Amino acid sequence: ESGAQIPALVIGTGYGGSVAALRLAQAGVEVHMVEMGMAWDAADSDGKIFANTTRPDRRSYWLRTRTKQPLSNFLGFPLDKAVPRYTGILDAEDFSGITVYQGRGVGGGSLVNGGMAVTPRRERLGAVLPTVSAEEMYGVYYPRANAGLGVNEIDPSWWDSTDCYQYARVGRRHAERSGFPFVLVPNVYDFAYMRQEEAGTVPKSALAAEILYGNNHGKKSLQKTYLARARATGKVSISPLHKVTSVAPAAGGGYTVVIEQLDTGGVRTATKTVTAGKVFFAAGSVGTSKLLTKLRATGALPGLNAETGKGWGDNGNVMCGRANHLWDPTGSLQSSMPTAGIDNWDAGGAFAEVAPLPTGIETFASFYLSITNNPHRAEFTWNASTGAVELSWQRSWKQPSIEAAKTIFDKINKKEGTIYRTDLFGLSKIWGDHLTYHPLGGAVLGKATDNYGRLHGHPGLYAIDGSLIPGNTTVNPFVTITALAERNIEQIIATDL
Ligand code: FAD
């Protein structure tokens, strides 16, 4: 409530925020978390909390009147449709050169993501986090993060035989025939639950195409892991539908935090001002960068340095589909949880996730989300005349990502005698190069912050989310975001409390 004095305030309830809240609470600190999205803890009129990927409704999008599906077209038909404006779960946030997809709600991106829980290869960490000790990360913090997230591995013999991963086995066959290393990757979806789904003994989630707009069963989102443990300490409270708009030094020490309460139409219903001893920016790469860029430019936090808002990357995300021969069906039943990837990072700069296309019908299509070694880095800037934060990313900057992905798929197409799909992202368009699922950077570790996420110029302010990572993780990012948060909060608790 307005006027409250809070020892530690955490902005956002995604990976970074959840780690911070749990560890601070375990160290005896009272924590309050502020989350702009909804709680996602109550069933809607259809008896379900989350909407199905194939049937988007008001729950699906953050304050849009029309869906903006990552795959916008199918066989020439546009897929998007009108939905009521609502504080839904997936934000397709448009900047001039890129649409950045993000989760909104208690649990952040863990609510909407594919659950792929990938630890980067150790020899690649130097390029990902150049100022962080690999020994510490692989000895302590990656294992801690994987345990805290509930990461599990799929039984390879089941993967080899189940109908729901036929599409992934087609992906393997094509990758291996072209000589590419193919890897099974861990996930936070409970594979024991998935096998029960297949057996028909539990309500279906992954096998009912639930992914982009939330999973009603089976997925170990942060609500079920870090946040459940944080709440169980009795020291963590959460305000959903509350958005932080300002943080500034308070006269008597600590920070004045301004918070707007929203209704489910996105309209502000109240403005609250609290004082916090310490503030953890965990609003995600975009959310944290937007706040810090604005607060620096408007003079609210004048001590932030010139690195603020810089070093932002898209993790090199680019999508594409391939059209298979009739003798290579990918299956009408596809688990929505990806489990495999083609690793051509060292030779071609691409790691391609074999992604599901859970339409319920045979499509003869293989679909991929590639993570590539894209060198471009963008910057957030404050536009005083519009009162908005802008991002300098250019659409043409995806070209190196397309080239990297082509090192895999041109070769596979040649070997298999197949072609790219041209119907998934609009008319005659091969590449999904307009988006990212993996925003990273904007408050880069060791640049805008010290080597543990302490923001320069303002003691007691920290960045502790994907904004710390300089634009690329070589694989899907949330395990690295979680492990880095574990590393940083341990140091902060030991020295700053
Ligand atoms: P987030 O998880 O984004 O959390 C930030 C939170 O802060 C959000 O809940 C947001 O609503 C809130 N917030 C923002 N601004 C404010 C404010 N001003 N006030 C209050 N609250 C605020 N990664 C993987 O590793 N594997 C995958 O399989 C994978 N699949 C993905 C699929 C999709 C469709 C998407 C969108 C992402 C996927 N990701 C995946 C990426 C992963 O989800 C993100 O990297 C991760 O969630 C980022 O964690 P974070 O802690 O930085 O921030």
UniProtKB/TrEMBL annotation:
<keyword id="KW-0413">Isomerase</keyword>
<dbReference type="InterPro" id="IPR007867">
    <property type="entry name" value="GMC_OxRtase_C"/>
</dbReference>
<keyword id="KW-0274">FAD</keyword>
<dbReference type="Pfam" id="PF05199">
    <property type="entry name" value="GMC_oxred_C"/>
</dbReference>
<dbReference type="InterPro" id="IPR036188">
    <property type="entry name" value="FAD/NAD-bd_sf"/>
</dbReference>
<keyword id="KW-0153">Cholesterol metabolism</keyword>
<dbReference type="InterPro" id="IPR052542">
    <property type="entry name" value="Cholesterol_Oxidase"/>
</dbReference>
<keyword id="KW-0285">Flavoprotein</keyword>
<comment type="similarity">
    <text>Belongs to the GMC oxidoreductase family.</text>
</comment>
<dbReference type="Pfam" id="PF22500">
    <property type="entry name" value="GMC_oxred_C_1st"/>
</dbReference>
<dbReference type="InterPro" id="IPR006311">
    <property type="entry name" value="TAT_signal"/>
</dbReference>
<keyword id="KW-0753">Steroid metabolism</keyword>
<keyword id="KW-0443">Lipid metabolism</keyword>
<protein>
    <recommendedName>
        <fullName>Cholesterol oxidase</fullName>
        <ecNumber>1.1.3.6</ecNumber>
        <ecNumber>5.3.3.1</ecNumber>
    </recommendedName>
</protein>
<feature type="domain" description="Glucose-methanol-choline oxidoreductase C-terminal">
    <location>
        <begin position="436"/>
        <end position="485"/>
    </location>
</feature>
<keyword id="KW-0560">Oxidoreductase</keyword>
<comment type="pathway">
    <text>Steroid metabolism; cholesterol degradation.</text>
</comment>
<keyword id="KW-1207">Sterol metabolism</keyword>
